[in-house]
């Protein structure tokens, strides 16, 4: 069944008033309790969600990048109320410290957050920068995992490492399995060292970054598809006690090829013998001609990114013969609750943001707290574009009880009734 979202959510007047009051009142006043508790108490909405099948307190999280590189950043995010934090991508290495993908372990030299206009005329934001993956030592990264887990313990916020592993440039080159094994095992150990739920599997994102799109490594489609088939197996077999020790997500990148190829990538991932446990879709676009600080060819985001992602995901939902779609974490130009709900209607269970947490402070209505807090205030409470308004709209549209909405029930309804977003273009 198709669902079209109207311009303005259709919700009862009383709810609309309550949202407006909350949005204004808490723009310069601290919430008395955490976001998810406040939302349950005041609006009767239970935001409990899942990431890779693991419980999280709410469905908004931080995507991997420059904003999850330090203990302090993670602490701020947990305190602000995020449901999960994906740490910056580390580059895999073997026991001797050798990294096949060393070219990605560069430090950031300059970063600019700037407005961007999409092809459809919509305006948004993009981040231009020249860095790539984690550039400190692997030991430092393992320490960040331990510290982040310690901070998150008992809060309902999930910490997730992210890693980029070796990818062969041609069919003749063999896979560096030593890097897969060494890195995955160390990540698992570090993650479980602090974790009070010792039996929990390691949640891990395998990053296929957008800069890969512009790299010689991914200039042929025949090279990319085998990666998608083989990488999950190599990572899962790296753990001594079997694949149950990991929840592996593949972060799919936007290639320079057309939508058909993106669909083929998604089909391949669903049909491979050893599947990932979930997908993250879809990392930024790459423009080989876009210039930044003397460099030609950079990744970018904004409205064109969400346009492409939603178009591909909707088509996949419609045309795919795959019966059980892998759980999905959405990324890409999520700058409102409404946009998150669009991804939800493409099958996403949770939402990971980067750019929206980096805007100039003047772009948020909330005047207190750090940027994550300001962003969550906007994402949840905005009376017409906020997540709560759109959850009420969906609950009404789907005939679910409006007095006590459970976010996970909505996710289940979308899945079981095979609801699909229909966008007005
Ligand atoms: C400055 C910057 C650094 C990033 N670094 C990483 C990274 O290390 N690993 C990764 O998987 N994604 C990385 N990303 C991609 C983000 O995690 C995110 O998926 C992408 O930016 C789309 O979300 P957004 O539109 O909310 O920014 C980075 C993005 C930006 C802007």
List the helices and strands and how they pair.
Elements: E1 2-3, H1 13-25, H2 35-43, E2 45-46, E3 49-51, E4 54-56, E5 60-62, H3 71-80, E6 84-91, E7 111-117, E8 123-129, H4 138-152, E9 158-164, H5 177-194, E10 202-207, H6 221-236, E11 246-251, H7 259-271, E12 278-281, E13 285-292, E14 295-300, H8 303-319, E15 328-331, H9 337-344, E16 348-353, H10 371-381, H11 387-397, E17 405-406, H12 407-416, E18 420-421
Parallel strand pairs: 1-18, 2-17, 5-6, 5-16, 6-9, 9-10, 10-11, 11-12, 12-15, 15-16
Antiparallel strand pairs: 3-4, 7-8, 13-14
The structure holds flavin mononucleotide.
Q: Would you kindly provide a written description of the structure presented here, covering whatever features stand out?
A:
The protein has helices at 13-25, 35-43, 71-80, 138-152, 177-194, 221-236, 259-271, 303-319, 337-344, 371-381, 387-397, 407-416, and strands spanning 2-3, 45-46, 49-51, 54-56, 60-62, 84-91, 111-117, 123-129, 158-164, 202-207, 246-251, 278-281, 285-292, 295-300, 328-331, 348-353, 405-406, 420-421. With 425 residues, it is α/β, with parallel strands linked by helices. It has one domain (2-421): Alpha-Beta Barrel (TIM Barrel). Strands 5-6-9-10-11-12-15-16 form an eight-stranded parallel barrel, surrounded by six helices. A two-stranded parallel sheet has the order 1-18. Helix 3 packs parallel to helix 4 and helix 4 (138-152) runs parallel beside helix 5. The longest helix has 18 residues, at 177-194. It binds flavin mononucleotide. Flavin mononucleotide is lined by residues 63-66, 88-89, 111, 127, 129, 133, 162, 207, 209, 251, 283-284, 301, 305, 331-334, 353-356. The site of flavin mononucleotide has 26 residues, from strand 6 and strand 8.
């Amino acid at each position: 069944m198709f669902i079209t979202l109207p311009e303005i959510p259709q919700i009862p007047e009383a709810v609309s008033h309550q949202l407006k009051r909350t949005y204004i009142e808490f723009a310069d006043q601290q919430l008395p309790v955490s976001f998810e508790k406040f939302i349950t108490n005041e609006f009767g909405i239970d935001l409990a969600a899942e990431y890779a099948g693991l419980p999280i307190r709410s469905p908004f999280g931080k995507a991997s990048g420059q904003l999850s590189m330090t203990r302090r950043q993670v602490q701020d995010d947990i305190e602000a109320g995020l449901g999960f934090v994906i740490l910056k991508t580390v580059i895999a290495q073997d026991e001797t410290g050798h990294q096949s993908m060393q070219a990605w372990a560069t430090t950031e030299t300059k970063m600019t957050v700037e407005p961007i206009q999409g092809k459809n005329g919509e305006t948004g934001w993009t981040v231009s920068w020249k860095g790539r993956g984690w550039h400190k030592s692997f030991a430092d990264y393992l320490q960040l995992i331990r510290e982040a887990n310690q901070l998150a313990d008992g809060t309902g916020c999930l910490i997730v490492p992210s890693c980029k592993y070796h990818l062969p440039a041609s069919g003749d080159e063999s896979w560096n399995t030593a890097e897969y094994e060494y890195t995955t095992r160390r990540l698992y150990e570090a993650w479980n060292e602090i974790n009070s739920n010792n039996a929990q599997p390691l949640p891990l994102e395998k990053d296929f970054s957008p800069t890969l799109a512009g790299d010689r490594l991914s200039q042929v489609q025949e090279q990319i598809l085998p990666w998608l088939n083989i990488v999950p197996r190599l990572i899962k077999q790296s753990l001594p006690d079997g694949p149950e020790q990991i929840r592996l997500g593949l972060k799919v990148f936007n290639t320079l090829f057309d939508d058909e190829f993106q669909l083929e990538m998604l089909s391949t991932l669903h049909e491979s013998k050893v599947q990932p446990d979930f997908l993250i879709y879809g990392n930024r676009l790459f423009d080989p001609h876009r210039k930044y600080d003397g460099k030609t060819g950079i990744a970018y985001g904004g409205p064109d990114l969400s346009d492409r992602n939603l178009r591909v995901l909707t088509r996949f939902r419609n045309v795919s013969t795959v019966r059980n779609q892998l759980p999905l974490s959405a990324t890409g130009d999520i700058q409102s609750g409404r946009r998150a709900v669009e991804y939800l209607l493409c099958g996403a269970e949770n939402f990971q943001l980067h750019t929206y947490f980096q805007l100039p402070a003047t772009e948020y209505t909330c005047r207190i707290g750090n940027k994550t807090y300001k962003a969550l205030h906007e994402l949840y409470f905005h009376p017409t574009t906020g997540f709560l308004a759109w959850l009420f709209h969906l609950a009404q549209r789907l005939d679910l009880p409006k007095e006590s909405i459970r976010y996970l029930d909505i996710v289940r309804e979308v899945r079981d009734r095979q609801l699909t977003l229909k966008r007005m273009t």
